[in-house]
Design a protein that fits this description.
Two copies of one chain form a homodimer.
Chain A (H helix, E strand, L loop, with lengths): L1 H11 L3 E5 L8 H11 L3 H19 L5 E4 L2 H4 L2 H17 L3 E8 L3 H11 L3 E3 L2 E3 L6 E4 L5 H14 L2 E7 L6 H4 L2 E2 L2 E2 H13 L8 E7 L4 H10 L3 E5 L23 E5 L1 H4 L15 H21 L2
Parallel strand pairs in A: 1-2, 1-12, 2-3, 3-6, 6-7, 7-10, 10-11, 11-12
Antiparallel strand pairs in A: 4-5, 8-9
Helix pairs in contact in A: 2-3, 3-5, 3-12, 6-7
Chain lengths: 308, 308
Amino acid sequence: MINKLVENIKRTGAPIVVGLDPKLEFIPEHIKAAAYEKFGETLEGAAEAIWQFNKEIVDKTYDLIPAVKPQVAMYEQFGVPGLLVFKKTVDYCKEKGLVVIGDIKRGDIGSTSAAYAVGHLGKVKVGSREYAPFDEDFVTVNPYLGSDGVNPFIDVCKEEKKGLFILVKTSNPSSGEFQDQLIDGKPLYELVGEKVAKWGEDCMGDEYSYIGAVVGATYPEMGKALRKVMPKAFILVPGYGAQGGKGKDLVHFFNEDGLGAIVNSSRGIIAAYKQEAYAKFGPENFGDASRAAVEDMIADIRGALENR
Amino acid sequence: MINKLVENIKRTGAPIVVGLDPKLEFIPEHIKAAAYEKFGETLEGAAEAIWQFNKEIVDKTYDLIPAVKPQVAMYEQFGVPGLLVFKKTVDYCKEKGLVVIGDIKRGDIGSTSAAYAVGHLGKVKVGSREYAPFDEDFVTVNPYLGSDGVNPFIDVCKEEKKGLFILVKTSNPSSGEFQDQLIDGKPLYELVGEKVAKWGEDCMGDEYSYIGAVVGATYPEMGKALRKVMPKAFILVPGYGAQGGKGKDLVHFFNEDGLGAIVNSSRGIIAAYKQEAYAKFGPENFGDASRAAVEDMIADIRGALENR
């Protein structure tokens, strides 16, 4: 799957991922009104609004982008109806040829991590049958529990040719509270980065490992350092746009080959119609606003990479 | 909800929690056969088997115990049908008067943590209506992202009078890989423990804070140290029984009042009928085996507390 991700990036020339994090406040009123008309102001109604919103954004952007990253929390908050639409979104994006990164940030002790791995990346056995319940291509994983929390995910990735992005340095303001603490003069995130490089060694695709890392766009200096610590790891970079990251800050997350990183934008793309720059599209053409925002984001990052 | 947990513990005299982590391999063949007969060897069939298994264990133990801890991964691995039964289990246990600790180990950046918090502990708004999607009483939270990943959970707890158990030192063998790293001579888990104490300060129930911690039974010395760092935090202690912890190792997780800790056993209770000690019950009476195992666990821990 790492090879497909690299291929998709080369084909589109766009090292970006669209974060499908559909808060209800991002969804235009006419979409919500139609969904509530059909299902009432219920969890099912909310889920239907999310589905219609996602579908339009995917339809309007899929040819420009290599991947999407649905944030499961935004679905899980609507309970089971929300998770049904999470699954529907995963399937639809895969049909469109997109690589799907499930942003699930799971992580537990061995046998429990194995259950998450099977549920999201692998196949679960029921009697003599097998099922792939959520079936994303990549997932994000929290490393706080150490190797035996991560290894069950890696085992499933090896079997299924899928991949991980392991949280190393997150994009939020207080990420440093624990992640930046110095251990023998070295920050914890670097220690985790070293582990990611190690875990990834025997998980190589053609050019990159399928064990990647999450490093926030909001910490470009750390991205530069971590790029060297994990030369073969793909870095998923959240925090572009709404959280403050810009293309020029991100060049050091990439290798010299122009690969090795994929930059996520969620709100900046999916709620583009709410920004002044794209207001002309109006809520009814929110998908076109998202397309324009994708084009601008690609130009920003491509420009920065060309001029580095 | 921390007050209800304390009341339930005092009433039952049992500072224990039964982990409802129903792997299919734990479920007796006759339960699975009946479920597959009805729904086939499908995700729905697996979910039905889990439900019948859980129900019997709860029916046979609820009067002895204060709380249950369903591990969501064991349900999530069966996709949406599994999550429907997670919810059904939460609701059933609450009807029986049990405190329900959702072992979800979620944690993300601010607005995403808020979505998890709302989905599992709070209420989500859809238009003019509100819904409580999963509605557990407590959840477990991963602190790797720092305060702004944890605070949204705390906010919902304050509003809903619910609570958290934050991962401090987990029970698995490799938990030390990151958690034990020394920062200015102090291990990371202790730093996290200090934060838990701090977060908990303005979240007090009558005797204890509703911001608790997870500390593995497999690390009794660390439990002893952390007990002092977080005097008002309830400690959820996994790792008893199958993972190796024994009653006498656990006394220092408790305060002098005999409170302040709640010890989890999952496999040791729910798959008791598979152990030699309870084999006489046979698979058909697996619920009675679980009841006997609960009685033995209570006696072990109570004995250890009386003799300390």
